[in-house]
Amino acid sequence: MSVSLNNDISVDSVTINNSGAVAAGDTKAVTGGVVYQAFKDLEDSLNIQGDGIKYFHVTSQKNDSEAAGSDSIAIGPAAVAEGSSSIAIGTSAGTNLNGQHNVSIGYEANKDLGQHHQVTAVGGKTRAEENAVALGYKAIATQDGVALGSDASAANQAIASGKGALAQGKGAQASD
To answer: How far apart are CA 1 and CA 29, in angstroms?
Structure first.
């Protein structure tokens, strides 16, 4: 078949693939039915139900998550995993570009934190720096410290456990 439009455009041939058999490198045109069936098959294989994948649904108007670091994972609205081998889960959770092997889980966990490695922050607005672990809302741990509980704070190899507990200095421990 040959088609000409105002002598400006010419097509030598058009082959329509009605069967739905499409392979890599094909130059054949496909029908809408073929495209629809391909997406339906993909949806079925991923077990997508309604608005998302079965047992996993997301609703948000915020920016998408971003897994920018090598081997990183980001899940949640505006979550950013910039550090290599890092994980950021939760709204605006983050790991820094220059940090690596970090875990931030919770609303704004480690958001806008500087360069730190091997830190774990779990809970809303938690902060962990320099090989530290912070668990609990607004818990803060620095310099190999461990802070457990809301507003707990531990620094310099100290351990603080309980709401508002504060421990600073090598070997120091505080509990509420």
So the answer is: 14
